[in-house]
Amino acid sequence: MRISDRKPLYPSIGSLYPDAMALLAEAGDESALGSALDSFPAYRKIWEVHQSEGVDSKSIDDAFYERDVQMAELAFQSQMHFACFYAYVKLKEQEVRNLVWICECINRVAAFMQPLVTRRSFSTMPIFNRGTKRQQRNNIALLDNSNEYEYLQDEVARRLVDRLEDIEREFPLALDLGCGSGHLYKNLSIDHGLGGIKKLVQCDSAEKLLLRDNLETNTLQGAVLLTRLMVIVAYAVETTRLVADEEFLPFPSRHFDLVMSSLSLHWVNDLESTFHQVLDTLKPDGAFIGAVLGGDSLQELRSAFILGDQERQGGISPHISPFMNVANAGNLLSATGFNLCTVDTDFIQVDYPNAFVLMEHLRGMGENHAINSRGAPATRDSLLAAASIYQSMFGQSDGTVPATFQVIYLIGWSPHESQQKPLRRGSAQHSLKELSHE
Question: What are the boundaries of the region Disordered (predicted)?
């Protein structure tokens, strides 16, 4: 609304002016009060009269109200001055509100960081370049056929949802951490009640990938999703998309009933801190279900690159990012504070025409190299040597080459008094030696 649009409201709005001056007087803001009175001589006259009589601010306020209409007409002859002064007063009030809000935020952050100060291991040298990975994932969202490279993510998401459906629990509010284009959401089974989810919050650091399948931005893919979305809406599942980094979660404590993550957390530098934040956002007896790539993934390609670099360059350079192993994943989950931890692994083998097609698909998945110390880039000779070695060592009878992906599935529960607890040490009534004699 423009200033000129307020003319019919001048008399009523004018009542705010004496209120504002009374507030400034009570606050002792003499400079602001003087500037305001200089802009309105009529108000200054009333102010000086009452000041000389020793009248308090309350009676001054009443006097202003008695001549409110007349003073408002005079005041709004200088409407631009009034607008500036009124904006100043509102700004003062907003600054107070902002200060209170900032203090509340600081208290919440302090309460959140307190248990993490002694437990978080701040990495002095991050392994992965998060900015590079975010850019890679945003780039694949711009491809016309980007959905053709998502077969691995969709398969892992389907297997992760299978594990969710085995849990006979309701999870009204769930978080999909590192959702990508929504693989878990697309694999929720209507026949199994959508995993008991009523509202799903999808977050990812790559905003273009997150919004790729938005009905408003992509008509072709939106038409494909339309039927599914209509069916899901009928089951009262509400979705919200949020751009957020997996390493810094912006959610309050004890907020979600379920946190899921599919093929995203293996690109996190400080996974222990992320697990702590996930545990903090879960309600008591809430569940975390995740899937990450394991250390045995792409062993064929890794071996081919090592041999190719040694043959053509006389040394090796990292071309494939490192992944965690099963033992470390389980230990890290339990050390974070999760209860009833479960870790299992699975292997998915995909056949490709040659090593170059494999590398093209890895780039299309957003799973290409993204470590900080990348070393020298692969030369043409090194790539040709690696592809030839790959074919000779792992080639199959039909001419294709296999690529193995190890997937580690993690399940953990936030602590709750109703959960099973181990018996006290030494409370056993029978020893294993007695069982061996029977």
Answer: 418-438
Check whether residue 357 and residue 276 sit in a common domain. yes
What is the average per-residue pLDDT within 214-231?
Answer: 44
Question: Residue 237 — φ and ψ, nearest 5°?
Answer: -105, 115
The one-letter amino acid code at 50 reads H
The CA–CA distances, whole Å, from 14 to 37, 59, 147, 346 equal 14, 17, 60, 72
* pLDDT of residue 390 exceeding 90: yes
* 285 belongs to a structural domain: yes
216 pLDDT exceeds 60? no
CATH number, domain containing residue 197: 3.40.50.150
C-alpha separations of 9 from 13, 77, 83 in Å: 6, 13, 13
| Position 435 in a domain | no
Domain count, the chain: 2
Residue 5: which residues within 8 A CB-CB, separation 6 or more?
Answer: none
**46 and 195 fall within a common domain:** no
Domain membership of residue 175 (yes or no) is yes
Q: What is the pLDDT of residue 281?
A: 94
According to the model, what pLDDT value does residue 227 have? 42
- Buried/exposed code over 301-325 (b: 16+ C-beta within 10 A; e: otherwise): bbebbbbbbeebeeeebebbbebbe
| CA neighbours closer than 13 Å in the CB half-sphere of residue 259 | 32
Give residues with Cβ within 8 angstroms of 137, minimum separation 6.
Answer: 180, 204, 205, 206, 208, 209, 366
Is the pTM higher than 0.85? The answer reads no
Q: Which residue carries 């799903």 as its tokens?
A: 200
The pLDDT value recorded for residue 424 is: 72
Query: What is the C-alpha to C-alpha distance for residues 205 and 130, in angstroms, rounded to an integer?
Result: 9
Domain assignment present for 327 = yes
Domain that holds residue 44: 3-98
- Pick from 63, 65, 59, 50: which is nearest to 14 by CA? 65
- 93 and 189 in a single domain? The answer is no
What are the pLDDT digits (tens) for 324-344? 888 888 889 989 999 989 999
pLDDT of residue 368: 85
Same domain, 397 and 308: yes
